[in-house]
Design a protein that fits this description.
5 helices; 106 residues; single chain
């Protein structure tokens, strides 16, 4: 049996979610603070049969795939602050006075 020929004869599978074509609408509703359950209900009312966990997973994957803005690297502190180490002052102990030997000591 030639597996290469069998693999080429197989039909192509759908790799994307059925929610992909509704991505902008879903993200617009998420931006308006809609819950996943509310979005799923709205999609079902508009002819897209979907459960709320699938909306949740779709949104989480979409956010994870989104490109992040790059920040410039942090600059090192100026040399004047690098040379001076920060030292804590030594702890102060209160001066102890001797207790009187007798109550009537003056």
């Amino acid at each position: 049996m030639d597996l290469q020929k069998a693999a080429e004869a197989e039909a192509e599978r759908r790799a994307r979610s059925k929610l992909e074509e509704h991505r902008r609408a879903i993200m617009a509703l998420r931006a308006k603070k809609w819950t996943y359950r509310q979005i799923a209900k709205w999609l079902n009312e508009h002819g897209v049969p979907v459960t709320f966990p699938s909306v949740y997973r779709f949104c989480e994957r979409s956010i994870a795939r989104r490109p992040r803005a790059t920040r410039p690297p942090l600059e090192p502190p100026p040399p004047s602050t690098q040379a001076e180490p920060f030292l804590l002052p030594p702890p102060r102990t209160p001066a102890k006075s001797k207790p009187p030997l007798h109550k009537l000591d003056i």
